[in-house]
Design brief:
Rossmann fold; three-stranded parallel beta sheet; Dihydrodipicolinate Reductase, domain 2; single chain; 319 residues
């Protein structure tokens, strides 16, 4: 994605595995096995993209920020609010930017939902229902004869709300704001041998701005992803975005409003036997360029990244 953007130069790569193991041997770029070594050797870095296990995001972001380098952090920003606060504190002290990767914000149906809610077309928001039903079976947690090194680990993965479904809680926060009065039930039905956390849950909450909501999720769906949807009921209409990846307008009936044709949604990220959220990461990279070169607005800033982490942390604490 970086190389495809004409305004960017990919100047270095870093991984604990050698380039032959990561498919990067043909990049002909400086390649490091240690982050600190890269930061000391590469004095020309404007930004570092952190795409490592969730539990490492905060400490690696602080390392980069300490070197006065902007950071692009894959979701989630961190696994605790306290770690997010530490990242924000460092960024403010060194006057650098933190970009959080929440690429589903660029989905045409989601952008339209944000516009409709912000313009008050739905009236008072009464009920928001999110459903996330995905498949993550042994093909995901045991990609070879051995278990995956971090997926399913409590300290590095954190749970399916962080690794699989944080995108949809980000959409909830982006469009409707914070939540309160969280109540939750969770159970690990099919993953006791592979994860340290629940694979299925039902969550209810109140929206701070008014109205109520719920989240129903599972990674115990057989064979393939079934649905990612959000249904919004307002005093002046109802809107549902559905499909496997929250990529289709499935229902729209709003007073004095007709849904216009939307651009096609990006296909999901294809990881072989399973698929993930929409392949909109090129928009994330472009936003980094726009902010650093043209002082435009950060699409997903550090405060928003922290709020998503905080909401997930509170949901797990409510079980």
């Amino acid at each position: 994605m970086i190389r495809r953007n004409a305004a960017c130069d990919l100047v270095a790569l870093c991984d604990i595995l050698p380039p032959e193991k990561t498919g990067c041997a043909d990049f002909n770029l400086p390649y490091f096995l240690d982050l600190e070594e890269m930061l000391q050797a590469q004095t020309d870095l404007d930004a570092v993209c952190i795409c490592t296990p969730n539990g490492l995001h905060a400490q690696q972001a602080i390392q980069c920020l300490s070197a006065k380098i902007n950071v692009v952090i894959e979701k989630p920003m961190a696994l605790t609010k306290a770690d997010c606060e530490a990242v924000i504190f460092k960024a403010l002290n060194v006057n650098r930017r933190v970009f959080c990767v929440m690429q589903n914000r660029y989905s045409p149906p989601v952008k339209k939902l944000k516009e409709i809610v912000a313009s008050d077309r739905l009236g008072d928001i009464l009920n928001v229902q999110i459903s996330c039903y995905w498949n993550r079976d042994d093909r995901y947690y045991f990609p070879t004869e051995k278990k995956h090194t971090w997926h399913g680990d409590a300290n590095l993965d954190g749970g399916v709300l962080f690794t699989q479904f944080s995108h949809f809680l980000d959409i909830l926060y982006w469009c409707f704001g914070d939540v309160k009065n969280i109540r939750a039930r969770m159970q690990n039905f099919l993953h006791e041998h592979s994860t340290a956390f629940a694979d299925t849950g039902i969550v209810s909450f109140d929206l701070v701005r008014g109205g109520m909501g719920s989240l129903s999720f599972s990674t115990a769906v057989w064979d393939r992803n079934a649905e990612s949807s959000i249904t919004v009921i307002g005093s002046r209409g109802t809107l549902k975005i559905g499909g496997q990846y929250m990529d289709k307008i499935e229902y729209c009936h709003i007073e004095d409003y007709e849904m216009p044709p939307l651009p096609p949604s990006a296909p999901p990220n294809d990881y072989g036997h399973y698929k993930g959220s929409a392949a909109n990461h090129h928009y994330v990279i472009q936003n980094v360029v726009d902010v650093l070169q043209n002082e435009k607005e950060t699409m997903t800033n550090a405060l928003e990244g922290m709020k998503v982490t905080e909401i997930i942390e509170r949901i797990y604490a409510a079980v």
